[in-house]
Known about the structure:
The protein is an alpha/beta fold. It contains 15 helices and 15 strands. α3 links the parallel β6 (98-101) and β7 (122-125).
Amino acid sequence: MPFDITRFEPKRVALFSGNYNYVMDGPVRALNKLVAYLEARGTEVLVFAPTAKKAAFDHCGTLVSVPSLPLPGRGEYRVALGMPKSVREQLEAFNPDLVHLAAPDWLGHAALAWAESKKVPAVSSFHTRFDTYPRYYHMRWLEKHVTAFMRRFYHRCEQIYVPSPCMAQVLAEQNMSDNIGIWSRGVDATLFNPDRRDMRWRQENGIADDDIVIAFVGRLVLEKGLGIFADTLDLLAQRGHRVKALIVGAGPERERFEARLPDAVFTGYLNGNKLARAYASSDIFFNASVTETFGNVTLEAMASGLPLVCADATGSRSLVQHGSNGLLAKSVTPDAFADALGLIISDPALQQSMQAASMAESTAYTWDAVLGRLYDQYRDVLAGYASDTTRKNRNRHSQPTVSAAE
């Protein structure tokens, strides 16, 4: 009898995350899309995550609040305090056939230990390069220890999902897992597109028609490369370029960032149509960060028809086709970024061709397609876990290999 993968449909998935609805960011958006997709396919989902008194948005699915405390120094985020008895009882009553972990935090470790004890397969998605954070807080010595901590966690999972092949290669080189799959990201082209450009909105925000608007979109935190962004804008002005920075987002560094860029336009947090208008009303998208694993904002900028200038790092390397829809800086320095931005600013024909290329590249990313591939990988994990031969033959100490699921 031929093997029937449809026998291994995920019926009940328990999802654990350090943030699901109290701060909107790229990983949270992806997780909410996943839950909505699974429920639409008939899979029951129960989400376990910290919550705040005021949510940032209406989340998808059923959310179980776990005890947590504000993260020291970054009070907008919360740290889950493991899994108390009451939460464990809800998990056991739900009886999941798959556990999905979104972060290697205390909650994630507790859920992983529970899954191991109950012989339920656990998978994990890799959303943020936490190992790079120490370099932004003068603790670079800590980076190798964070990497080792993450490696121990991910090696206990049946499979981990990363947003791009280049991120998979990085994790393979770090021996982070022996089973790496791809869970890419999607974009809503009906929302993010060049037709949202609004010259009147630009004028209302003090932007002249001939200003070159360079957009930053994201959380206003140090690890997003805010210092390099500001230094780069200074260099462009010194070189005689007429540029205006458009800063979309909120976060603890906003006050200092505003003081550093007094002529920039700060919109605060935007979403929906207002966010789409801000993208389309810009001229170039600039992302100096090296901490993302994919770069959701970069993809949204592409769909909006913007040329891209980004760090040559995992979050951008799979999206920016160097010389086609944007440029990857040769080094993460203000000089390198200013050179790349200046090249686009000085060549209107190049800017126009990059706009068209960005839009064309973005059409490959739809949510239904990428979530369908993740669903198939769920089924593969369940099928593999059910096979004693497959599990016994797995060599946990072998070099990681990238799944062919993409």
